[in-house]
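Give me structure tokens for this 261-residue protein.
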Amino acid sequence: LLMNDSISTFDTSKTSIEILDSKKEDKIIKNTKKKKNHQLLKILIFISFTLLGFINHLGYYLIITSSQQFATKLGNESLIACYPLALIVFSSFTRILNSKYCINLSYFIRVIALAIYFCMGYLSLFFILQSANLNTSNNRAFWLTMIPTTIVGTAESFGEVTILGYAGTFRGNYISGWNIGSAFAGVSGSFLSLLFKRLETNLKYVYLFLSPVAVLYLFIFMLIHLCGYKERKNYILKQKYNKMQEEKSQNIPINNKIICF
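Here you go.
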């Protein structure tokens, strides 16, 4: 009887050890799955930031590369420098306005306004070129194209400031993804301009096709915002907590600012 009791206690202890081992295995499996999902999420966000950088800069580089074509066909080849000037000059004012008036606006509202602004620029440029007679000198159409050129330039600058600021609120280094997209946009803009010139196709149709791409800009941002919301929020709150601890240790009055998610 004593032997039977000892065997039974040994069996029960063995099964309890097996149960503990199985629980540990389940935890390890769950942790590995979480890590894999987190890595996939990071890759998805990185690709999304790359696409945002590409879309944000594509119109800018297209206008730069096609400015000679526009100026020549509109009979103002000597004023070709007006296109890069319109793209660059007003963009500096956009950065000042963003830092002064848009800092308390949520990123989501800013990107909605940005997508609409891009659409306005591309569509207005297409319709101006469509209505103008590109075979003869058209001084009025040339100066009218400066308006959408300025819109695209300021939108590009505003988008860069907004998205780079947004990328800085994530734990990962997603700014490098944005830079890759920006560089690829420069190459693609030059390639598209040369391709349309080679095919003897009017470049104005590129701007018509770019207008729905500006709406895609908003959808990509929404994808990042929804997928990375939890990670981003935790990172911001952790940074705020660390800052509060530093201010407490240095006896600095705590500054409670509104956090725009």
